[in-house]
Amino acid sequence: MSHKHRLLSLGKLMAYILRHRPDEFGLVPDEEGFISLKELQQAINEEEGWGFVRRSHILEVVWTDDRKRFEIKDDKIRATYGHSLKEPITYEPVMPPKVLYHGTRRKSYPGILQRGLLPMGRQYVHLTPSRELAERMGKRRDPKPLILEVMAQRAYEAGIRFFHPAPLIYLTDRVPPEFLSGPPVEKVTGPKERPPEALREPGSLFLDLKKEEVRRGKAWKREARRFRKRYRNL
Question: Could you tell me which residues are beta bridge partners of residue 163?
Fold first, then answer.
């Protein structure tokens, strides 16, 4: 396939994603319909046969498109027509499914258990009813993401608002930790390092080192006694 035909095919894929079903690719437009260029590239790279696409290819599609289907602003991209919006998107709260899923970085898990799921620079926390899609979204930030179950209906009944902008995407302002289900933290982050105090317990390396110091001290005393004996005999 020539470079020109690759760009034509890429433009069609971008139009489908940005105009119609960003949720199929784990993408959530902001209130003005924009999506991060980086996230768009990641989503395209995940598709079979599209791993070659770089940011430069996406920009070339935008700059050479005769129909001006795309707009770039502040490192984000959206379709200029087909679904382009003049007013910000507003969502009505909905009742979510019983369980939703969220893929996150493993190193973030201890903090999530304390504070819950937060937008972390985004407008909303992104959730999905598809465990597979949650894993796909999570892999964009961690090669082996942790998939959390969100007890969405219980959270909704407790007053947490959920929004449903697309079939495979749910949004919420935050999810408190009591509505999250995941493995024990030790299985995710590994066993905690023992604090210095633990090294002073019987049988520890620290105690063995002390024994070694005592043993060496006794040897030094024996050597000192031999030296004094030799000195007296001079």
Answer: 93, 171
Closest CA to 99 of 166, 21, 182: 182
Contacts 24+ apart (CB under 8 A), 203-209: none
Q: Is 134 exposed, middle or buried (0-12, 13-18, 19+ CB in 10 A)?
A: buried
Average pLDDT, the chain: 84
Three-class SS state of 14: helix
Residue 127, judged by CB atoms within 10 A of its CB (0-12, 13-18, 19+), counts as buried
CA distances from 90 to 33, 113, 118, 206 (A): 11, 30, 20, 61
C-alpha 161: how far from chain center: 22
The answer to whether 76 and 34 are in contact (CB under 8 A) is yes
Q: What is the pLDDT of residues 127-179, one digit of tens each?
A: 999 999 999 999 999 999 999 999 999 999 999 999 999 999 999 999 999 99
CA distance 85 to 114: 38
Q: Per the structure block, which two tokens stand in for 230?
A: 């030799």
C-beta of residue 128 within 8 angstroms of C-beta of residue 137: yes
pTM over 0.85: no
| Range with lowest mean pLDDT among 40-54, 101-115, 120-134, 182-196 | 182-196
Distances (CA, A) of 159 to 94, 114, 120, 151: 12, 19, 21, 13
Cα-only R_g, the chain: 29
